[in-house]
Write a structure and sequence with these properties.
The structure holds 2 protein chains of 2 kinds. Chain A is mainly beta. Chain A has no helices and 11 strands. The termini of chain A are far apart. The chains are: A mainly beta, B mainly beta.
Chain lengths: 114, 114
């Protein structure tokens, strides 16, 4: 079955710097890749997603890139702010099965220092 | 609009007791998912509903776990004879059906087994 690896597990940056989180997946048939932000005591919140027919997607300070050949995708946050501090999860959605079941990475704890 | 609602937000119970967790999805979302998040870990898929049917129960860890959904809306996850290893945050998500539909999460139920 699908397996998603995420790194780094922790990331500390200065306010204003960029942050990059990388994920790899194993099932080449996976075709949907969302990113979630989870704050303490809250459920994961979808921040951006990408489908396998697209190589890059941007939304203000957040961008996601997908390399289908290498089976990896990355989250890029520019001009980081303290409120970006949270745990970020990548996920992949393999075809078949429950038609939407997400396989998650183990998360990256991002700390943005003012 | 109203998001995914889960109750209770916290549950503390003794080992061996049964517990019931509730999820009220976003109106119109026919797909519903249960995930489990252990301390510092990613999200582990448990079960998927499409309407009232559960075509994928592959993530349920044992026969002590069961779930149902009635009226295509509210779902309950039941854990019988709870064990300490059941302690985790149980998250519910809902979406429109099909692969690539964004899943929206509730804030979860934090379950602690004494």
């Amino acid at each position: 079955g699908e397996n998603v690896e995420q790194h780094p597990s922790t990331l500390s940056v200065q306010e204003g710097d960029s942050a990059v989180i990388k994920c790899t997946y194993s099932d080449s048939a996976s075709n949907y890749f969302p990113w979630y932000k989870q704050e303490l005591g809250k459920g994961p919140q979808l921040i951006i997603d990408i489908r396998s027919n697209v190589g890059e997607k941007k939304d203000q300070r957040i961008a996601v890139t997908l390399n289908k050949t290498a089976k990896h995708f990355s989250l890029h946050i520019t001009e980081t702010q303290p409120e970006d501090s949270a745990v970020y999860f990548c996920a992949a959605s393999p075809p078949g099965g429950s038609q939407g079941n997400l396989i998650f990475g183990k998360g990256t704890k991002l700390s943005v220092k003012p | 609009g109203a998001g995914v609602s889960q109750s209770p937000s916290n549950k503390v119970t003794e080992k061996g007791k049964d517990v019931e967790l509730r999820c009220d999805p976003i109106s119109g979302h026919t797909a519903l998912y249960w995930y489990r998040q252990s301390l510092g870990q990613g999200l582990e898929f448990l079960i998927y509903f499409q309407g009232n049917s559960a075509p994928d129960k592959s993530g349920l860890p044992s026969d002590r776990f069961s779930a149902e959904r009635t009226g295509g809306s509210v779902s309950t996850l039941t854990i019988q004879r709870t064990q300490q290893e059941d302690s985790a945050v149980y998250l519910c998500a809902s979406s429109f059906p099909g692969i690539g539909q964004p899943q929206h999460f509730g804030d979860g139920t934090r379950l602690s087994i004494l």
